[in-house]
Model the fold of this input.
Amino acid sequence: MTNNKMIFIANWKMYGDKNNLKGLKEVLKFERKKIDKKNTIIYCPPYTLLSDVSKILKNSNIKVGAQNCHHSYEYGPNTGCINVKLLKNVGAEYVIIGHSENRFYDNDNIINKKLLAATKENLKIIFCLGETLKEKKSNKTFKVLKNQIRIGLKKIKNINNVIIAYEPRWSIGTGNLPKKSELINNTNFIKKIIRSIDKKGKIKIIYGGSVNPSNISELCKIKLFNGFLIGSASLKHNNFIDIIKKTTI
Ligand code: PGA
Done:
């Protein structure tokens, strides 16, 4: 349990259909009952559900985010792509950029363009960072994280709109959490690099990768994070609520 203001992001990935919206309504009920309103819950459904989710969450404290965006700010002939203006138009307030599952297609420079486009549209950014298993094993984690931050955040002026999600790529969807010492070292390293850009220390850092109701209490004990990015465990509303309760109540 923590007394800090925490952020909980539900990333539905390429799951979540209209049936999941029933569960979302349960989370909404839970949120409305809470006396303590200081935490932020953000739902990132697939693009196809953004409109529905925005409607359900209208007039609530739960926020809506997209899972990705195109790097071009302007509308254009890009079949199958979604830019930040289209996201804003259907009610997204946040956007995940640089998620590990998209880093197979996007390099750091493209990711930087996406961040710049999102900033221009005043979307809040959930900027994901993390090393692969190969990079970890060859002791390249710090180098990789540093490059991701330096290139990704290049020319970003409104740094307060960015939440950093540290997600070791080998931990996502695997059930494997980093060792406590590893998490502390890597997160402190990220904080150190960020401090050179964010002098006031306002950027929030959250953790993502195999977070579930069974390991959340251990993760909270580390006391380094401002919240969690939750993938598969967020699809079942009971699990998601459980994670929030164990962190905050
Ligand atoms: P996971 O996903 O919780 O399923 O590991 C995390 C994420 O999407 O970043």
Remarks:
- Residues 132 and 240 are 26 Å apart (CA to CA).
- The chain has nine helices and eight strands.
